[in-house]
Every structure is written in C-alpha cells, then in structure tokens.
Amino acid sequence: MRTRYYERDAFPPAVAELRRAYRVFVPVRRGDFHAFAEWDDSVRPDFDYRKTRVPPKGLVFPQSERLLVFSTDERDPEHDILREAPKDFPPQAVVGIRPYDAMAFRVLEVNFDTPEVRDPWWLRRREATTLIGLARADEDATMFRTENYAGPFDERGLDVIVYDLGRGYLAKALGEKGEAALAAMGGDEPAADALREVEERIARAATPELPAGRLRAQPAAPELPTGRLRAQPVVPLFEAEFWDEVAAPCLNCGVCTFLCPTCWCFDIQDEVRKQEGDRIRNWDSCMFPLYTLHASGHNPRGKKTQRVRNRFMHKLKYYLDKYDRGVMCVGCGRCVEACPVNIDIREVAARMNGFGEQVERHDR
Amino acid sequence: MTDYTDRLRAAARRLLGEGRVDCFIGYRRGSLPLAAQPAILTRAEQADSLIWDPSCGMNLAHYAVGRADRIGIVATGCVSRSLVALALENQVARERLYIVGVPCTGMLDAGALRRRFPGREAAAAAYEGPRVTIAFADGNEELAVAENLARPCRTCAHPNPVVADEMLGEPVASPAVPAVPEEAAAAEARSAAERWAYFCEAFAHCIRCYACRNACPLCYCPTCFVDESRPQWVGKSSDPTDTRTFHFLRALHLAGRCTDCGACERACPLDIPVRHLTSRLNAEAKAIYGFEAGLDLEERPLLDRYRPEDLNDFFK
Amino acid sequence: MIARDRNPYLPYPVRIEEIITETGDHSLKTFKLVFLDPADEARFAFLPGQFAEISVAGKGEIPIGIASSPTEKGYLLFTVQKMGVVTSHLHSMRPGDRLGLRGPLGNWYPWERMEGRNVVIIGGGCAFSTLRSSIVYMTDPSRRPKFKRLTAVYGARCLSLLLYSDRLDEWKGEKSGIDMHVTVDAMQESEPRTPRWQCHVGFVPAVVKEKIKDPTDAIVILCGPPAMLKFTLPVLKEAGFADGQIYLSLENRMKCGIGMCGRCNVGGKLVCKDGPVFSLAELGELPRET
Questions:
Q1: Which CATH number covers residue C93?
Q2: Boundaries of each 4Fe-4S ferredoxin-type domain copy (chain A) (predicted)?
Q3: Does residue C226 belong to any structural domain of this protein?
Q4: CB distance from A325 to chain C under 8 Å?
Q5: What is the predicted ipTM?
Q6: Model confidence, pTM
Q7: How far is C277 from chain B (nearest CA, A)?
C-alpha cells in the first residue's frame, strides 16, 4: 500500500501531474459555493473547501446525458434506428472528493449495476473514475453519520485517501486504481511522525464528539436515528399520521433531490433538431408531480404528502430493506442546508425510527 | 420585532379557539439557527409553536392557494400583496382569509450572512429588537438586522400589510426607495450585449430544480409550461438554451403580477439572482403604467385591464 | 429478459407490418411488428404477461403489454390506446414505418404454477392484451394439455369496443378449449357488429359471480381498469379464492422499464422489474399507492 507525503504547497503541483494521464476534477470556488470543475488553466483548485453545493455525482451520472442518437431523415438508410451515442470514457480523477460523496457512489451502484441489467454508461464512467479523497475532520453542523458514512476518515468509497495534516498532506492508496494514481502524483515517503499523526486524528474521530457549533441546546445525535427502521413493518409506517405534518411546508421543488449525492431517479426524453435526434437522460425528481403522472391523468402520487413520504420511505426504508446495505443517505446535510423551508431529514428519520413507540418528542 | 411573537400566538390561539378560522398559517422555529419553517396549525393548543423574527422570510401566501377552508395567516407587506394578487386571480377567496398583519422591518438574508462570515457556522441566533446575535463556535457576533437584509427587503416600498383584518402593531415608516430597484438600475446601465453576457453567466449554474417557481406564490399554474408535453415548449435537459428559456418565460409570466417578495431568490439553492428579471419587469410596469401588483383588491391586474391612455406606441 | 451484456436502453429496430383498428371509436389499434433483423426475434424470447418499450424516434418510448403469444411466430402484436404523446403519434403511423422495441421486460403470469391447474382469466377494456397473449398461449394445441379447465371473462363497455373480434369468434367456438364469457356493460341500439355468439350484458364482476364459483386448484389472472378490479376482487374472495391464487397485472408510469429510473415503485417494489404481475398476497404486503 503506497503512501506519500506532500508539503502543503507541493500538493497542487502533484495533483497537476495527474493531468498527463487523467481528466482531473477539483473543487473550485464559484460565487458563495464550491463545485467540482475540470482543472484546466481557467480554474484554481481550492482544497480547503468543506462541501460542494452540488455533489460530484454528476461526474459519473451527469444531470443530462445523451444516450442514443438517430436520424429521422428517410433518405438515410438507417433512419429511425437508434444507436449508441458515440462517446469515449477517458480516465478521470476526482481529487479532493470528500468521503461522504465517495460513499454515495457505492450507494448508487446497486441501482445501475444489478444482477439482471447493467447501465452501460454508469459502468464505463465509474470504471474510468479514480476517487482521490480529502480527509479532514471539518464536518459541519448539518452533517450526520449513517451506515454509509462513518465519518471524515471513512475510506470505503475511495481509491486514495489524502489526510490533511495542516502543514502537509499524507496520501494512502487503497487499491489498484489508487496505486496507479499515486504513482503518477509522485511525492515523498512519509516520515514516521506523519503516519502517527494520521492515526491519532483517526482515533480522535472514532469517538465522535459533537462537532463544534452544534445546532441545538440539546445535543442532536451525530448518527442518523435509523436503528429501529429495519424492524418497522412497512405498511403501518407508510400509513403513519405524521406524514401530513412532515410534508405541510414542502414546496415540491427539486432542491433536496438534485443536491442529493444518492438520488438516482431520471427521465428519458427525445429531442430532435432538424433531422438529427438524441435520446437524453436527465435527472428527475420524485418531488415533481409529473414524475408519476399517467397518460390517462391518473397519478398514484398526485398529492404532496405522497411524494414527500415516498422520498423519505425510499431513502430510509425501501432501500434499507431491499439491499441490506444501510440507508440511502451519506449524511452530507445538503438537503438540510438548502431546503427553502427547512425540512430536515434528521427530524423525519427520528419520527420514522420512533414510530410505534411512545417517544417523547422534544419541542423545537 | 420579537415582541410580536406573543401577540401572534394570542391571535392564532383566539382565532382557532373561537372557530373563526380552520387553520392558521405561520412560522415555527426551524432546525437551523437562521431558519423558520412555515407551519399550518389547526388547533389552538399549537399556537405556542408560532414564532416571529427576522428569519420568517419565506412567503406564506403559497400555502393559502388551493385551500377550501377558512384560513388565518400572518402577513407582512409582501405576503399581503401576494394575497391580494392571488385574490384578484381567484386563487384565494378574500372572505375566507383572516389576515393578521405585521408591520415589517425586513428579513435577514442567510446568504449575505454566509458571505459575511465565510467558513464560520452559526450555532444559534437570538433576536432582540433591531439586532440579532449569532453564536459561532469561536464567539458571538451582534449585528443590526437592517444591515443584513434580504435583497427585496432592502428596497421594499410596502413594509406594512396592504390589507389586514387585524394588525399586531403600528405601521412602520416606508423607507425611501429608489424609483428603480438597484438591480434593475444596474442592468439598465449595461449595453444589450453586456446584459446578455451577464444573464448567461448569472444563470449558467441553474440546475432546473424549479425551487424559484415552486416558492413563488404567483406560480400556481396546475401545469407549468416547462412541464407541458403537448406541445413541449422547453427541452428538459440542462442545455443552456432551455434553462434560459425557462427563466425568461417564467419572468414574463410574472409581468404585472410579481409582488417582489423575493421568495424565488430565497429558495434558490445556488443563489442565482432570479429576481433580477422580475424586478426589471416590475420597474417597467411602474414606469409605464404606474402599476404595482397586489396593492389594491379593487384594481384588476395590469394585463387584465385596458385604459385608453395606456402606452401603445409599440403598435407600428 | 434482456441479456445482461446487452445495452438495455438500445431498442431492436422493427417495422410496422400491419395496423388493425380494433374498436369502433378508433381509440385502440393493434400494431403487428416484425424485426428488421430476423435474428432479434430469438433474442426477444418472452412469456405472456411481459411488456416491451415501444420506441418512436423523436417522440419517446411507451411501455405496452405484449398481446401476441410466444406460439405466434414471426411477428409481435401490441394493442395501443391513443393517449399521450407517443401513443398519439403511433396511431398516426403507417405500415412500413420503423419503430424500436426494447424488451421483453418485467415478469409474467405464474406459468409454472398454472400448469396442471384450472385457470381463470378475467379482463376488461384495453387491458385485455396480455390476456389475449395468455389465452392464445394456453389454447395452442401444443400447450393446451398442460392446463385443466380454462375459463375466461372478458368485458368491454359495448360491442364495438371489444378487442380481437377475429379471435373472439374462435374462442367462443366449441373446440376452442376455453370456456369464454364475453360481456358488455350495455347493448347499444345501433351496434355495428352483431356477434354470432351469445354475449352477456352486465359488468364483469356480475358475470364472474355467476360463472366463476370453484376456487379448487385454480389460479386467476386479472387485468383491467381500477373499477373492475375493485369490484371483482371481493366477488372472487367470496367465492373462496385466496390472495395467493389471484394475480394482477399493474400499470404505472414508466420510463426505463428496467428498474433504474425509479418512478414506477409501489413501496419497495418496481412495477417494471418486480412486476407488472403481482399476486394479491404480495400486494397486501405493500403500501397501497396505486
């Protein structure tokens, strides 16, 4: 297992070395927020960032992607026959991805790579992607832990983990992809004290203290309360009375789903310009009524409560039951931060988890 | 401003308790220190969950649309204007509304605070009079609310409810407001090419989540034009042309209807200045027709009326 | 099922061979499709109850149940109701036009369980298509001995809205191997078609009550509009059918058809992949949200 040490100033040039063999995506500041962007000469990476506003999910599962192409020109012997849109999948490295966003790909993969069918675009782009993660104990107050996010040093989703030690970075390869990337980055063998410091930092994080600046007077659990969910029978939970109250403030916008690193729903649309056609996949949102509207006008989730309930049930119950790999959430807190009406998954999870039990709900 | 909380709770308790209304729309404390959550109460005992402070910025008029019951609602100037506009468009019935008016001194802009304290995270906020104290991990900051207002509040000409069934306080003085909002004026100074470049850049990172549309109380169409499939007016991908078309058309649909509450910008997860487009149209409506939406229950909406003296030199 | 190594989004090119207008109001047409590459037919091995995504280039895709039987070789039949963007365009197309076809998708009626048993088929309206497939499949001389008594109840609003009139004549015949009951909600005064066989007048549940009385060793497969299901299921239960004996085919809005795009879920189940056929017992364990 290759480990390398970089002085603080030496890290960006080492990452730049990757550009010889990879398309390199890095966090950049964009207005008030950060976003992942391809590192070309017009952008400057900012590895001191904490969280991107839009997750890097789109680097493997783009918001809009041309899947198939066709011609509607009847003079073309191949007219109206759909074929794969020609594209290549060059190696790409996502440098500075945080562990929760990396874990999100593991949450997503069960949808796109299944025992029966496999999504070819997901597979190829995922295969071409190397995740070089940034580990630093700087979780903000909207974040929390789940089975799919064990904290800022969670290396499960990564190919390389890079510990920020302040004066420099210590990088550790976590598999073949990571070995290759780290070899391309160069760097020095770490000194013993750097390795020891990493261990200390991990040990400190393993006994989670409340991150500084927690929200409430009473401590909010850093773990998303989901322990009782697996045992909850699905139908009574679905029929629970609290859903109307949870959904009441919801505006039915797509913020929570579009900013979610683990939401995968999509729509497929045909677009034709002159006689050249594309079949395009776009992110969709279960918050939109159109998502489930039948051509007949019937809508099984025509009401706001039904849609809000489906979102939380999918994330915290259906996914859990179906795949047996935790809840469909990596605790990034983006939905908590960005919801215009402050619907908070931590509170919803607590209600679902406590359903059927006489729990004392603390007043807000 | 906080003194209104007690009066508001008393009003809601009385209205629900006496059966004067079936529900009461207000705000309760959110889970984040600078957030208030819209709440729809149905029982008098819930009244104590209501709050009133400068975090109560999301326009509540949205929640009055489509309800068949008798609604109590707390309203500032902009919420009341939205209700008037909605009543004129038959989306709410004035006689089923009981408006509890609050003279408004403006709401905080969470985005501005984020910019002001980059990298620091608010752990709690306490409001007292015109000041707010924000607790950060590394110490408290005390600020004047008036210096950290959301953009529409900075140029608000109608801070007092334009219609109310009872008022929780004495009207506040309307601030001196520029004839053309700052954003619109800034746009005015640019050339067409510069404006286009600005627009393309400002809206480039839109993710089409439609939070701006859904937060807008006046965007109540059962099927928005972007969701129509027969015909399909706008493509659904993140193609920049489609994204721009959405924003342009949405703004135009609000011409003469927008009450400039800023819910669109408040809801945008990417801080896109969505309101620039509508505020420009508002300035136009005021300059050409002397019209501001939602001020008068007796005055038909701008695009729903004709006067001989209306500007008509666009006829060539 | 689509082979795992195949791009599941890529349709097989097909040609419209024939279009049959099924109903007097022209709202339902059956499209006879043939593969442009005959080798694709073998790749498209299916069982009755499955569906496919029909693809109109430039308009999109639509999930439609397969109306033909695997025993009908050389072509596929799809009965399509004119409804949304894609189906409306389909209805304007002509023989010779090209379409795409993705599938076969979803599960099928419980053929292993049905073999050696009595089978009851209940259908209403345009949802009869996969039941047509099933009846043709079961009554094919090569397969008929595998089943015991076959009984079917099929209803439409009026005679002119009955599908597959050519087949109905055959199924009503004495040697068809199936006891077929056809019913219409009401007899119109000026019916364009006068069947040679006896037709009930009344709703499907009433005919089921009269004709389907023996749950012994039987499996019921049902497909029809919500109202039909709502009133037929209690009749079956009253007759003694258990939830595990009754299978329904569901419809939901779908896009991908392969369990990835998310929208067709009922609780944790995806109608496109885990369905469209569910037993009543399975549905009882799912949230009620159809």
A1: 2.40.30.10
A2: 239-271, 316-348
A3: yes
A4: no
A5: 0.92
A6: 0.93
A7: 29
